[in-house]
């Protein structure tokens, strides 16, 4: 009797061998759960593999290929370094302005008190220290010292100019500034707090900034109202006349202040001109905003790049392995590529199959790739150029997504849905036509779709009536095909203290061609064998390799990588227009991954800005019991936002969520600066000064502290403007927006504050006089800013 089966211990799956740096390997990918910490998970996994390595056979080693957590570690190190640099720069600026080490100690103490206190609250709120919260601390360093700077600057001025003792100067400073310090903090919190309740993925990012900054600013205000005046009363002394560099610095500062006063006075005397100029500024905000393309997040260099390799449908696994080996030899000597690994049979976007594979390039450390030709974009272009010589396969190169978990790739991603009765071939033709038009637009670097409707398939036409006549159940036909061709799981058995699966499958010789199918026998109900060819016919056909569905509709997944300078929002608009004009009405787009998040966030920044401004205005109204005076504070924000958006245009940036966050920050920062001047002008007006004198005196008295706080923030945020390395794109987006926005607010916006105060204060007082004449009312205590009561 001949053999009826071959029994062997083999692999559970035969999907091909992986390779790393030319050595055969078994790729192992680790995916974390939603509530797991990626860094902790990686360290635990590495420790466990190190323990298991002691039992590996001779000649077997393990190594780390692409590690996505390395980006997080390096980014955190970069941020901590930036944090220290920012701290030193802020202290230096404070010392240059105060010119006394005793006075510099006051704001210097505020920084660690506020930051350490913030960490405590983050712990109580069960929030982690991550790249977002650390970026927020960098931004907030220049703001937490503002209140302490105002306190110490006022104390020093009162000691020098009025000859008060440090204790009396501290007490008088608190009488003058307590209201302004509370008002500025309330306004900033009113701007930052609402974004913490923003929904969706963007809300998760905004929440980190919102909570961190609000807590730090509140702590800095408490510090300014308690610890700062106490330190001032204890350590401040009357300073001697400045000498050397400080004497020239003070002269330059006085000259600058006088220039500001002249321009401010010029605008305050010509209110119509001021109104026209400011209307132009406000209108320019809308024009520039609409001209900036949108995107979700900036593209980040994650330290690696992926290549998906697709061979023609029906290509064997051995052929795929040969192409992957060829790609390895082409790219392994590219400068700044550290490791190359590949795995046949698997992809990130197109599923699995014998005709596809993936190549992962792990790049050198970011510190070794600082020049433009060493950036990830240049490396990807070189990979594309070298792989263009491969005729047997399509090689698509893409970077990991900026936010891990939001898709497998960067770029614009969507599903093209066929909502009518289209066949898979018609959907494939429509997809190819759309992608061709996208390339013709000149905005796409390349595109890719995982949908393939031309895969060779074997079509088995079962004659069910004949099968029933021969007593062959349909289920028996399917079980036979599964067992003979695809293998079937039978049971388990134990061997060498391990459990193995038993699988049954025909040998390769009986699965190599279509004729072998007709030779299979199917068991009937009565136990007889019936040839499959007696109840079925077999032929070749073409069809989709895998059926894709989106919202229950037949669909094709598409990825488009934009050219440098083309934002994702611009590309998405182009795709929408092409679908509308080039395809029939029964084709629709369903955005996926980060593109979907971008559509959810589109246009909401305008409403979020308006809501924050309105809330800040209402806080000021409640603080000063006045409806018109806070308007001058709110309007001063326009110069900062215009400066920030012009900077985005200059740098070629798009309006992503980090730039939007920078604009929100500018609202709070510039409002805080304006309050210091307007609040003092209000005090002088209440004491009987004219509106004009009160406005200019407010600028004169608060100019030094405003410039000091403004420069502290601007200089402190500069390390983010010039950031490089891991995570630099997001830091640059926030830094460039806030740096130039605040710089424009200091240089241009401050000149408008006295005139704006005059316009709205004059309007308020004119309205009050009209109300008194019309309704017979008089102001309490003769002050225009108080509420009215009827005459007796």
What does this protein look like?
There is one protein chain. This protein has 792 residues and is α+β, with helices and mostly antiparallel strands. The protein is built from 23 helices and 19 strands. Strands 2-1-4-5-3-6 form a six-stranded antiparallel beta sheet, covered by helices on one side. Strands 7, 8, 15, 16 and 17 form a five-stranded antiparallel beta sheet that branches. A two-stranded antiparallel ribbon has the order 9-14. α2 packs antiparallel against α22 (691-721). The longest helix has 48 residues, at 728-775. The model is unreliable at 779-792 (pLDDT under 50).
Strand composition percent: 5-15%
Could you say which overall geometry the principal axes of the C-alpha atoms support? Answer: elongated
Count of discrete alpha- or pi-helical segments spanning 4 or more residues: 23
Strand order of the largest sheet: 2-1-4-5-3-6
Enumerate the spans where pLDDT stays under 50 for 5 or more consecutive residues: 779-792
- Separation of the first and last Cα atoms: 126 Å
Q: Let me know the number of strands.
A: 19
């Amino acid at each position: 009797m001949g053999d009826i089966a071959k029994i062997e211990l083999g692999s559970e799956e035969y999907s091909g061998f992986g390779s790393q740096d030319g050595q055969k390997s078994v790729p192992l990918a680790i995916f974390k759960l939603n509530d797991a910490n990626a860094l902790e998970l990686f360290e635990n996994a590495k420790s466990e593999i190190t323990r298991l390595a002691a039992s590996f056979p001779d000649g077997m080693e393990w190594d780390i290929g692409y590690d996505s957590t390395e980006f997080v570690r390096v980014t955190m190190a970069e941020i901590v370094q930036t944090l220290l640099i920012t701290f030193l720069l802020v202290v230096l600026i404070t010392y240059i302005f105060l010119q006394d080490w005793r006075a510099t100690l006051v704001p210097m103490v505020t920084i660690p008190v506020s930051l350490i206190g913030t960490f405590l609250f983050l712990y109580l709120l069960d929030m982690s220290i991550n790249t977002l919260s650390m970026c927020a601390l960098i931004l907030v360093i220049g703001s937490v010292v503002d209140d302490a700077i105002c306190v110490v600057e006022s104390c020093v001025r009162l000691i020098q100019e009025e000859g008060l003792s440090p204790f009396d100067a501290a007490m008088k400073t608190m009488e003058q500034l307590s209201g302004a310090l509370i008002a500025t903090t309330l306004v900033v919190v009113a701007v930052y707090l609402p974004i913490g309740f923003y929904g969706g993925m963007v809300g998760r990012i905004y929440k980190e900034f919102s909570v961190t900054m609000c807590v730090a600013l509140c702590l800095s205000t408490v510090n300014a109202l308690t610890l700062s005046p106490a330190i001032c009363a204890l350590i401040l002394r009357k300073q001697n006349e400045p000498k050397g560099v400080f004497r020239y610095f003070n002269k330059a500062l006085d000259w600058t202040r006088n220039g500001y006063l002249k321009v401010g006075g010029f605008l305050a005397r010509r209110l119509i001109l001021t109104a026209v100029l400011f209307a132009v500024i406000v209108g320019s905000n809308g024009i520039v905003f609409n001209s900036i393309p949108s995107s979700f997040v900036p593209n980040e260099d994650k330290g690696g790049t992926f290549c998906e390799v697709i061979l023609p449908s029906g290509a064997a696994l051995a052929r795929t392995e040969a192409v992957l080996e060829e790609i390895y030899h082409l790219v392994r000597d590219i400068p700044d590529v550290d490791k190359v690994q590949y795995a046949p049979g698997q992809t990130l976007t197109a599923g699995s199959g014998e005709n596809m594979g993936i190549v992962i390039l792990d790049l050198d450390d970011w510190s070794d790739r600082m020049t433009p030709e060493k950036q990830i974009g240049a490396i990807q272009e070189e990979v594309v150029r070298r792989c263009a010589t491969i005729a047997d396969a399509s090689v698509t190169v893409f970077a990991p997504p900026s936010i891990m978990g939001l898709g497998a790739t960067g770029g614009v991603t969507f599903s093209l849905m066929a909502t009518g009765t289209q066949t898979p071939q018609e959907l494939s033709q429509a997809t190819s036509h759309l992608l061709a038009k996208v390339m013709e637009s000149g905005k796409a670097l390349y595109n890719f779709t995982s949908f393939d409707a031309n895969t060779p398939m074997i079509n088995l036409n079962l004659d069910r009536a004949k099968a029933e006549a021969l007593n062959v159940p349909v289920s028996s036909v399917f079980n036979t095909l599964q067992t003979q061709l695809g293998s079937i799981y039978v049971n388990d058995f134990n061997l060498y203290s391990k459990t193995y699966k038993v699988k049954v499958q025909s040998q390769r010789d009986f699965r190599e061609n279509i004729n072998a199918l007709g030779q299979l026998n199917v068991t009937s109900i009565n136990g007889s064998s019936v040839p499959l060819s007696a109840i079925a016919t077999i032929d070749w056909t073409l069809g989709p390799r895998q059926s894709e569905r989106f919202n229950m509709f037949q669909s094709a997944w598409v990825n488009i990588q934009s050219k440098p300078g083309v934002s994702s929002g611009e590309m998405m608009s182009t795709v929408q227009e092409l679908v509308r004009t080039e395809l029939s009405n029964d084709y629709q787009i369903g955005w996926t991954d980060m593109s979907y998040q971008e559509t959810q966030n589109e246009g909401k920044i305008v409403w979020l800005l308006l809501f924050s401004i309105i809330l800040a205005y209402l806080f000021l109204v409640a603080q000063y019991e006045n409806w018109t005076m806070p308007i001058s504070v709110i309007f001063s924000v326009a110069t900062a936002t215009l400066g920030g958006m012009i900077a985005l245009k200059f740098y070629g940036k798009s309006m992503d969520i980090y730039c939007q966050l920078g604009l929100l920050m500018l609202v709070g920062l510039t409002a805080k600066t304006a309050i210091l001047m307007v609040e003092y002008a209000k005090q002088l007006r209440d004491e009987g000064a004219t509106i004009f004198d009160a406005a200019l005196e407010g600028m004169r008295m608060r100019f030094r502290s405003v410039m000091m706080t403004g420069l502290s923030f601007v200089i402190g945020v500069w390390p983010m403007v010039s950031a490089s390395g891991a995570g630099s794109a997001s830091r640059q987006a926030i830094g460039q927006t806030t740096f130039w926005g605040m710089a424009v607010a200091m240089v241009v916006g401050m000149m408008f504050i006295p005139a704006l105060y005059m316009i709205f204060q004059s309007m308020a007082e004119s309205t009050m006089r009209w109300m008194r004449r019309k309704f017979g009312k008089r102001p309490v205590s003769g002050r225009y800013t108080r509420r009215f009561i009827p005459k007796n």
